[in-house]
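Please check this record.
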Amino acid sequence: MAVAAVVEKQNVATAGIAENVRRAADETVTAGGHIDIVSRVAEETGEAANHVADSADVLSRQSTHLDSEVADFLGRIRAA
């Protein structure tokens, strides 16, 4: 009788451990999905940052060109 009680307790403990392992596996799969999402968002953010940087470079070049054009224009007005 005592052996049966100990075996039953061991079975209950084993079932509890198995349930905890199953939950941990499920949570690992869920976390993996979240990591994939974060990775994609980070990649998209990097692409957007590169686009903004490229646009800033274009604007900088255009600003420099505009400064030059304004200086030339003002020089012609002063000369006239």
Observations:
- The radius of gyration is 34 Å.
- DSSP finds one helix and no strands in the chain.
- The mean pLDDT is 96.
